[in-house]
């Protein structure tokens, strides 16, 4: 700044070329003109400065307004930020509560795990004595299971062996064997009993008793099964010594792979003494009469005849032979009635005595005498006959 010249009016620095020696030749007027020019420029500069100052004031006012607006926006933003912060803080509190609940659950789970681990450790660290007792208990249980198995196997074997000895099921199975996958069901529907009449009661006559059946199959297989059902397959609640009015139940139960025979029926005993004949050695009176070795009453010379035996006499011919066979045992000759003689000549047990042909010659024992008198009393009513008539057998 040394050597610089400034204007005395406005204070502006004068150009250096005015100070150079080469320009010293300029006249004082030129200097005055320059000063005036500079003053003019200075005035213009001041006006410009005033304009700039006014513009600057306007700008400042605008800046202040803008600043107020910005301050208002900042206040609003701060309020919004505070609201957001409050919301975030609430969420944080809820989250903390959730974390605290989760922590509680985790704590409970940890405690349960610790208890489980503690129990496992307790079990794993049980005393040797407890382990021995456990092994002993297991050994006893194993022995018990083996014993049960052996007993069950033996029982099954014995039952199976026993089953093979049964002729009921095996006989029916061997006789009738159906190949259908579906079982045939046969059911007992009715029973027609037959009886053998004895002295004071009757027995079931198995050979004459009839059974009626109902089946779900009408084929020949069903009929074949029925035809092979034997009397021994039936079970009777009572079959001998029956009295009129008694109830008897018949049951059958056969279960095979391809068929079943089942049923249970009851009937009331009702036999007619006039319809059924007493049997001796399985024979009726007529059958014994036709038998070469038969007697009407085989014991009439050694026992008193019973009411049951007497009730078996149904015809005059039967009564006539019963009386005369007591004579025939002694070899009596029936010369007065050839038809009776022919009858006894056919008997294997008869031996004719030609010298014995009068009633006065006969000697009877106590049983023979009593039985002759008893039989003679029957010669009345429907059993009455003529001693001189021909004997028709």
From TrEMBL:
InterPro entries the record matches:
YARHG_dom (IPR025582), YARHG_sf (IPR038434)
- Originating species: Kandleria vitulina DSM 20405
Please report the name of this protein according to its UniProt entry: YARHG domain-containing protein
Residue ranges with Acidic residues bias: 61-93, 102-113
Q: Which UniProt keywords apply?
A: Membrane, Transmembrane, Transmembrane helix
- Supply the source organism's classification: Bacteria, Bacillati, Bacillota, Erysipelotrichia, Erysipelotrichales
Signal peptide interval? none
Where the record annotates domain YARHG, the positions are 293-380
Region named Disordered: 14-130
């Amino acid at each position: 700044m040394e050597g610089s010249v400034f204007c005395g009016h406005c204070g502006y620095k004068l150009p250096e070329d005015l100070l150079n020696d080469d320009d010293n030749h300029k006249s004082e007027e030129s200097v005055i003109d320059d000063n005036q020019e500079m003053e003019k420029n200075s005035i213009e500069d001041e006006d410009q400065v005033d304009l700039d100052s006014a513009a600057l004031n306007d700008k400042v006012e605008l800046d202040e307004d803008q600043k107020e607006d910005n301050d208002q926006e900042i206040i609003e933003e701060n309020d919004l930020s505070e609201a957001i912060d409050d919301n975030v803080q609430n969420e944080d509190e809820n989250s903390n509560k959730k974390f605290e609940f989760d922590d509680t659950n985790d704590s409970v789970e940890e405690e349960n795990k610790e208890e489980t681990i503690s129990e496992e450790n307790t079990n794993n660290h049980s005393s040797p004595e407890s382990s021995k007792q456990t092994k002993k208990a297991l050994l006893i249980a194993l022995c018990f299971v083996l014993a049960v198995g052996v007993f069950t196997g033996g029982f099954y074997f014995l039952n199976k062996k026993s089953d093979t000895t049964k002729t009921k099921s095996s006989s029916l199975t061997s006789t009738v064997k159906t190949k259908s996958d579906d079982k045939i069901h046969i059911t007992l529907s009715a029973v027609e009993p037959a009886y053998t009449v004895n002295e004071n009661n009757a027995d079931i006559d198995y050979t004459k008793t009839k059974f009626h059946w109902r089946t779900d199959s009408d084929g020949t297989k069903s009929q074949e099964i029925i035809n092979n059902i034997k009397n021994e397959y039936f079970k009777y609640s009572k079959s001998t010594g029956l009295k009129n009015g008694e109830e008897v139940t018949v049951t059958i139960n056969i279960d095979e792979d391809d068929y079943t025979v089942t049923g249970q029926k009851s009937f009331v005993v009702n036999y007619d003494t006039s319809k059924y004949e007493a049997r001796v050695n399985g024979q009726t009176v007529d059958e014994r009469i036709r038998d070469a070795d038969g007697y009407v009453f085989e014991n009439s010379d050694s026992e008193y005849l019973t009411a049951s035996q007497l009730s078996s006499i149904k015809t005059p011919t039967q009564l006539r032979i019963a009386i005369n066979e007591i004579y025939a045992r002694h070899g009596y000759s029936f010369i007065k009635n050839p038809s009776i003689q022919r009858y006894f000549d056919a008997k294997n047990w008869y031996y004719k005595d030609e010298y014995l042909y009068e009633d006065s010659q006969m000697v009877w024992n106590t049983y023979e005498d009593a039985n002759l008198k008893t039989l003679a009393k029957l010669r009345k009513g429907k059993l009455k006959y003529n001693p001189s008539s021909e004997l028709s057998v």
